[in-house]
Amino acid sequence: MSKNFLIGIVGGTGYTGLELLRLLLLHPQVKIHTIASRSQAGQPISDIFPGLENYPLFFEDVNLKKLTACDLVFYATPHEVAMGQAGELVKAGVKVVDLSADFRLKNTTVFEHWYCQHSDPELLQKAVYGLTELNREAIKTAQLIANPGCYPTSIQLPLAPLLYEGLIETKGIFIDSKSGVSGAGKSLSVGNLYTENDENFRAYGVAGHRHLPEIEQELSHFADEAIQVTFVPHLLPMTRGIESTIYCQLKEGIKLTDIYQVWQKKYAQEDFISIRENTPPATKEVRGTNRCAFSAVIPQQRNTLVISSVIDNLVKGASGQAVQNMNIMLGLDETLGLGQIPLLA
Amino acid sequence: MSKNFLIGIVGGTGYTGLELLRLLLLHPQVKIHTIASRSQAGQPISDIFPGLENYPLFFEDVNLKKLTACDLVFYATPHEVAMGQAGELVKAGVKVVDLSADFRLKNTTVFEHWYCQHSDPELLQKAVYGLTELNREAIKTAQLIANPGCYPTSIQLPLAPLLYEGLIETKGIFIDSKSGVSGAGKSLSVGNLYTENDENFRAYGVAGHRHLPEIEQELSHFADEAIQVTFVPHLLPMTRGIESTIYCQLKEGIKLTDIYQVWQKKYAQEDFISIRENTPPATKEVRGTNRCAFSAVIPQQRNTLVISSVIDNLVKGASGQAVQNMNIMLGLDETLGLGQIPLLA
Amino acid sequence: MSKNFLIGIVGGTGYTGLELLRLLLLHPQVKIHTIASRSQAGQPISDIFPGLENYPLFFEDVNLKKLTACDLVFYATPHEVAMGQAGELVKAGVKVVDLSADFRLKNTTVFEHWYCQHSDPELLQKAVYGLTELNREAIKTAQLIANPGCYPTSIQLPLAPLLYEGLIETKGIFIDSKSGVSGAGKSLSVGNLYTENDENFRAYGVAGHRHLPEIEQELSHFADEAIQVTFVPHLLPMTRGIESTIYCQLKEGIKLTDIYQVWQKKYAQEDFISIRENTPPATKEVRGTNRCAFSAVIPQQRNTLVISSVIDNLVKGASGQAVQNMNIMLGLDETLGLGQIPLLA
Amino acid sequence: MSKNFLIGIVGGTGYTGLELLRLLLLHPQVKIHTIASRSQAGQPISDIFPGLENYPLFFEDVNLKKLTACDLVFYATPHEVAMGQAGELVKAGVKVVDLSADFRLKNTTVFEHWYCQHSDPELLQKAVYGLTELNREAIKTAQLIANPGCYPTSIQLPLAPLLYEGLIETKGIFIDSKSGVSGAGKSLSVGNLYTENDENFRAYGVAGHRHLPEIEQELSHFADEAIQVTFVPHLLPMTRGIESTIYCQLKEGIKLTDIYQVWQKKYAQEDFISIRENTPPATKEVRGTNRCAFSAVIPQQRNTLVISSVIDNLVKGASGQAVQNMNIMLGLDETLGLGQIPLLA
Questions:
Q1: Do the domain assignments include residue B65?
Q2: Do C104 and C46 fall into the same domain?
Q3: Is there a single domain that holds both residue C209 and residue C309?
Q4: Residue D230 and residue D66: Cα distance in Å, rounded?
Q5: What does the pLDDT average to over A238-255?
Q6: CATH number of domain containing B206
Q7: Which alpha helices (DSSP H) does chain B contain, by range?
Q8: Are D273 and D292 a contacting pair, CB within 8 Å?
Q9: Rounded to the nearest 5°, which phi and psi values hold at B29?
Q10: Of C86, C109, C126, which closes a domain?
Q11: Of A135, A295, B147, C57, which has fewest CB within 10 angstroms of its CB?
Q12: Do C341 and A22 touch (CB under 8 A)?
């Protein structure tokens, strides 16, 4: 097959940029036209990532001309970069998938509360939220995708259909999420050092994490009412993987089979969703893959539903879902380049 | 100082037995009189634990005569061993601390549901539950201590005073606990292998874990009403440490300062309790110590209280608390032998 | 592409069997016709490996009829299984790749010293040693491949050409190898438990490891004289990866550029060999891939050459090299199904 | 016991400073008079190290007056700090233990080659090398101790007596060392990040590591001739622990029993040395302790001796040995405050 589509990556030196490389270099239909990194311009990618020596690509400075020559551009940059550049690309007809949070929150006041003032509120309204399985139709024709956060992806996939179908109460949702350290990115802080995380586990961001408004915005949409949840993230002593344990209240008369029936109806045909009965999934079962696996239990036949949901934060939680969205936007088979089998050992 | 008290350990080859050795060998007032292990009888302890070569002890077969010569005997055995032997020791005037679950559940029907038929229901009623800070008076005169489970210890210490003082609702308590792999013991199963746990995280026992009835029994006691909680344990890719994130509903008008006031009142004088404001504690901060550290947050000023509580599962969650109870039962300073500073790095 | 070749796997539940599944299920030209496991016969593979739920295969009992219907059969069994079964398959015209040690040592006396009496010495003489880059021509027409050990693979690839070309002394070779725990397999022993390996590192098998005679046999072949080496393996607190640091003496007048020149001449066209200048490779750079990467340094301009060589023990050290050999034996492109990019994060 | 000696620590926020705190806060005879950190002056130590909340100490600016009031001052600073300050303290009669490399190399030309110009060459000549078991007499009367490097400690303890007694050849010594990540300190670099080290292993500093001249200087001293060794350090995916595997050539006629006899003669009375027969020691067996454990094997009855030596890099490899030296310098029992039992699980 010839590689028909030209792709740009802005911000290629972090962990989501690296993961985009891992997926796109093997993708049968796309070609990386430019990978931009101000700090590493001129360096071969294998100087930063020695395992990629078979791929003779070089980091370049951000080059608008090369970016506008692309069919699609990924932003794997810190917040506030994409919102300054995406408008021009979109105007030039280039499709954009932003892996940062810049276009995730529709309400600019909320955005400003959690991040900063938004510099392109007009474009923000046109951005399409890229949780693929829940928003596929809009993604097909989108020019700009706000790729979802890692925690929100693991949470919405099991929860959204249950709220939409009215199987659970909209009050009393508690979400206890745990993430591998790669989710914190490659920034140099004491908290990211090996010795601080090895053999260690802790809650963080309890008073408020930036993914909370994203979770509430999207769940409210599916419930068709304003929803507030309690969301507590934790840091795991491992590199990849998110597990979210979600506690919610069943509406009267709802049984476990109803839950599974709704999930089956919604997801039976989905390539990247694993509905697990009996044993909750382990993060290793989706490591390196674009898959989300989840299970449900009603402990002790009481009224609480416990969902356990796992993803690889760098794949379905970031770069994998970004590629999935790219496939859809470019009219390709959605699973292209995403057929990885997990490294179970 | 002369070492005045003779101590026996039954079941010294597992991880809680090993941890008893680590603590008791340096304890200034006790001497290990016999350490029993059927499978290793005759072996020097340093054959099993090479780091203990300075201590010339030998595993022995279980020897009732030597055990009855002790002032106090620890059972660090699988379930069903202590309930068959403790009676005889107690009759002989020997104090017993059982680290297994044999004497934790007062209701024999409940015990049978989760474990097996109880072989000494009479003795069961005399056993004193050994969560030291919550039951110190009874421990002082106890002949037989049911040393608490690891998860229940991390949960009750912060929760019990809040229930007792009526600050939180007795309904709607969700407990999301995470434990290092040493909590699963040294048994040979695929689930305990290195490769199965490294870089992996998973929920387990969602439908029902044996610590659930223990948690509910004790919390009900403090709330003075029957309490049901949702409890989900998880397995962490590390050796030691438990973190429990607890979600509960504040009674009307209760503020965060009320929570901290109750904790201060209850625990300000306690040597092994760290009340943390602001940042939730990390498990590493109590590693190797007998300490329990916890914090509270009311996220987004809504109505839910989020507690994060950490212990070392092998110390405060098992052998350390057992030694703390021993100190009390023998009339010693409660902190003797328990002054460890954590290995933060 | 239609999948043209039928493949059998005997012993599919261990880590090398699992890794064969990971590679073969995505291979474009082969189809798994039977996967045999006595202990799990009748179970879907996803019951043992939940991440493989998209692949509706079932473990079967060892079935000679199904095996003889295959084009090629892999043995991913403990020692002594393949030597009892391979003869019959070979007679039936089935190609066999044995991942165990049964056919690696040509000298039956040596084999018996390290393992047991060999039950098929005749077939042993026909077996071809499957270190692909060093033995490709013989592999093309082989009926039975003795797939190399993991340590020997990491050692021979850099060393063999240097011995063959006479650049280093044949005496004074010291090999210090380190392996992830998956190399020890999935057997239930205390030494394989999580808690025994986490945060731990140790030498083992110093007095003699079964890979020593394999290393000496093969290096002697390339040096054209009997070679004795010192080989010490160690166990790393991680799942995958081997690093071998090799110390050897340069022959008079040999410079670092000579070393690299020989490597370039031998390996420049090889798809799975990375010759690294400057920085020694890290195991993560080959994780999940069939690649071997190595570097050379002459510290302080003295006379000792230090080689650092890395592989993924489950891929190039076992199942990946087995698939590479399969590709050659079946007349396929050698790289088919082996194009993985490492999980650098 | 009253705490009779006043101690100062300069540079208390790194991992060796933290480890000094862990050891000294429980030491029965010393009191920390000042702990200096420019960056954290005014902060309680528990703000940086939350596990130390029971100890109400505050970081202070470096205060010469307070330091000169101390009996002994530790430097746990980066290189180049101690050499600028120690002279003044020594003049004031304060004893100094420098954990950095500033006073380890006697030859200023060598020092300059590996570090920088030495600013106090006169004092350098008076410094006593603090490898306690090998230099105890000189330490007793020293004013200034150059505390040894971590790798050199693990290497010299087993090797020095063999060289001194002439049991091994002085040529052909190969040292393959592996260290936990805490050895690299707390500095913010990509190489120290969690994700870069987790599930990873690599050689580094092959061309030349700063501990090489220290090792050669000291071994030459014991051999009474100039010795050159090959030394290759590696980085382990764990926090604490060093293992050095040392390959050397036996002099003619020397047997394994001769090796053990020399070690027994030298070390039988030592509290912190474990001579292991049979199985090589694991790093976990000395974790958190001031112990060095080592074993010797002559593989295959050939002529090469293989030594495996383990220490905890932060204890015997740094702060523990510093406290051991302090005890000697202050006329205290050498083992005071150093009786820890390892965390085997």
A1: yes
A2: yes
A3: yes
A4: 44
A5: 98
A6: 3.30.360.10
A7: 15-24, 45-48, 64-68, 82-91, 108-114, 121-126, 132-140, 150-164, 194-197, 211-223, 256-267, 320-329
A8: yes
A9: -125, 0
A10: C126
A11: C57
A12: yes
Query: DSSP 3-state assignment of A147?
Result: coil
For residues D242 and D284, state if they share a domain. yes
C interface residues, B as partner, C-beta within 8 Å? 15, 181-182, 186, 188-190, 192-199, 237-239
Q: Which domain holds residue A164?
A: 151-313
Q: Which two tokens stand for residue D138?
A: 């000189």
- With beta carbons less than 8 A apart as the criterion, state whether A308 and A295 touch: yes
Does B298 lie in the same domain as B161? yes
Chain D interface test: which of A37, A49, A195 (most D C-beta within 10 Å): A195
State residue B2's pLDDT score. 62
Q: Burial letters for A139-159: b for 16+ Cβ neighbours within 10 Å, e otherwise?
A: beebbbbbbbbbbbbbbbbbb
Strand ranges inside A185-286, DSSP E: 202-203, 230-235, 242-249, 273-276
* Burial readout A103-114 (b: 16 or more C-beta within 10 A, e: otherwise): bbbbeeeebeeb
Residues of chain B with pLDDT > 70, as a percent, come to: 99
In a domain, C345, yes or no: no
Q: β-strand B304-311 against B242-249: which pairing, if any?
A: antiparallel
Among A26, A239, A293, whose Cβ lies nearest the Cβ of C341? A26
Question: Using the beta-carbon criterion (under 8 Å), do C345 and A314 form an inter-chain contact?
Answer: yes
What was the pLDDT predicted at C3? 73
How far separated are the first and last CA of chain B, in Å rounded? Answer: 32
Which position has the token pair 């551009």?
A73
- The residues facing B293 across adjacent strands are B274, B310
Helices (H) and strands (E) in chain A, counts: 12, 14
Query: Do A160 and A91 share a structural domain?
Result: no
- Region A270-279: what's the mean pLDDT? 95
- Provide CB contacts within 8 A for B213, sequence distance 6+: B105, B110, B113, B114
Tokens 């050692």 correspond to C155
CA distance C129 to chain B (A): 29
With the CA atoms of A129, A133, A136 and A138 taken in that order, what torsion angle do they form, in degrees rounded to the nearest 10? -30
Q: Do B25 and D341 touch (CB under 8 A)?
A: yes
C286: nearest CA in chain A?
A51
Dist CA D308 CA D243 (whole Å):
7
- Nearest in space to C182 (alpha carbons), one of C75, C315, C284, C286: C315
**Residue type at position A120:** D
The verdict on a CB contact (< 8 Å) between D342 and B51 is yes
Q: Is the same domain home to C115 and C158?
A: no
How far apart CA D208 and CA D210 sit, in angstroms, is: 7
**B183 contacts on C by Cβ (under 8 Å):** none
CB contact under 8 A, D288 and B289: no
- A70 an active-site residue? no
Any idea what the CATH number is for the domain that residue B12 is in?
A: 3.40.50.720
Domain count for chain B? 2
Percent of chain C with pLDDT over 90: 97
Residues B259, B156 share a domain = yes
pTM for the whole structure: 0.97
pLDDT band at B176 (very low <50, low <70, confident <90, very high): very high
Complete edge-to-edge strand list for the sheet that includes strand C30-36: C59-60, C30-36, C5-10, C72-75, C95-98, C144-146, C128-129
CA distances from A275 to A251, A309, C57, D305 (A): 21, 10, 18, 57
Q: What is the pLDDT of residues A293-329, one digit of tens each?
A: 999 999 999 999 999 999 999 999 999 999 999 999 9
pLDDT of A222 reads 98
CB contact under 8 A, B341 and D26: yes
Q: How far is A291 from chain B (nearest CA, A)?
A: 15
Positions of B marked catalytic: 150
pLDDT tens digits for range C319-343:
999 999 999 999 999 999 999 999 9
Q: What is the pLDDT of residues A191-205, one digit of tens each?
A: 999 999 999 999 999
User: Can you give the pLDDT at residue A153?
Assistant: 98
